[in-house]
Design goal:
Among the domains are: 3-114; 136-224. The protein is built from 13 helices and six strands. A hairpin with a 2-residue loop joins β5 (207-208) and β6 (211-212). It starts with 9 loop residues before the first helix and ends with a helix. The protein is elongated, with a radius of gyration of 22 Å. It has helices spanning 10-20, 25-41, 48-58, 66-73, 106-109, 112-126, 138-150, 154-167, 172-186, 191-201, 213-224, 245-260, 268-290, and strands spanning 46-47, 76-80, 85-86, 100-104, 207-208, 211-212. The protein is an alpha+beta fold and 291 residues long. The strands form two sheets. The protein has a four-stranded antiparallel β-sheet with strand order 1-4-2-3. Strands 5-6 form a two-stranded antiparallel ribbon.
């Protein structure tokens, strides 16, 4: 675990921990399993039996360690039929055979909307990064930063940049450029920050780690002149290459299977997009009932 993350907001620090060590990805999957059940059941309190069944079906390799995972996750609590609440290491006292329910810890209940949005955005970033537990290269770090920037996770990116600057001091100028781009977007195109970003770009070529800096420079000029109203986004250089026969055959098979499923592309990312919007509606109804 990164020592510098210990005192931060748990969901925030959890995300940065997973970025640093992808073997912890299952922590997010367990949280997502809870949110899926909230969507299906229409209730913030979920039977522990149902929750573990979901975990067993989705994450079989982690099934035996569910207590360890919940303790490290530190976002969910368990309550029994007598009203006793188990959090942190007290979760080890709970038996799977007990009639218990799992829910968000009290301090996060009123942040369900925020949590749902962040979990969705975090997962979209995590799902693009596959370090396999190996040490991150500068290319991995650069791509991770781009994904965070384009998802507008500026607070998380700012803190990650401070870590990467220490870890990859030779690439400090690139990370400083990203920090300037954060200021450009959060200030809605403040010309001073645009000028500073353009000045920093002079030290780079047209491409850095596959990132299209030529297009970035053009967008910054357009924003400076008031012709670009949207936030700056980072793009990758597009490479065109001819597809081989095997690739064409594989694509044809995938296309055929997709048609059998009604043309839909069933991915974890798309399914999580669906459960987020349902959870958002659920929370709105929950607040209306309390008023």
């Amino acid at each position: 675990m990164l020592e510098e993350l210990k005192e931060r907001d748990r969901i925030h620090s959890l995300f940065l921990e997973v970025l640093d060590d992808s073997s912890k990805k299952e922590l997010f999957l367990y949280l997502m399993c809870y949110l899926q059940l909230v969507r299906r059941r229409g209730n913030l309190s979920i039977s522990l039996t149902d929750y573990l069944s979901c975990a067993s079906g989705s994450f079989k390799k982690a099934r035996a360690n569910w207590k360890d995972i919940l303790v490290e996750l530190n976002l969910l609590a368990i309550s029994d039929m007598y009203g006793r609440v188990y959090e942190g290491k007290d979760i080890y006292k709970v038996s799977e055979e007990d009639l218990c329910f799992i829910t968000l810890k009290e301090e996060y209940v009123n942040r369900l909307d925020e949590l749902s949005v962040k979990v969705l955005k975090y997962w979209m970033v995590i799902n693009k990064i596959a370090s396999g537990g190996r040490k991150l290269s500068i290319l991995d770090a650069a791509l991770t930063c781009v994904y965070l920037f384009n998802e507008e996770l500026y607070d998380e990116l700012h803190e990650l940049l401070s870590i990467y600057i220490m870890r990859y001091p030779s690439e400090k100028s690139f990370f400083n450029l990203l920090d300037l781009l954060i200021k450009v977007n959060t200030s809605k195109g403040e010309k001073l920050y645009i000028q500073q970003a353009l000045g920093t770009l002079k030290d780079f070529g047209e491409v850095y780690c596959g990132i299209n800096l030529k297009k970035l420079k053009e967008d910054l000029y357009m924003m400076y002149k008031g012709k670009l109203k949207d936030s700056i986004k980072l793009e990758f250089v597009k490479h065109t290459q001819r597809r081989g026969l095997l690739r064409k055959v594989i694509d044809s098979i995938v296309s055929f299977i997709r048609k059998l499923k009604g043309g839909k592309k069933w991915t974890l990312q798309s399914s999580e997009t669906a459960f987020y919007f349902f959870t958002e509606d659920l929370w709105k109804r929950h607040n209306q009932q309390r008023m």
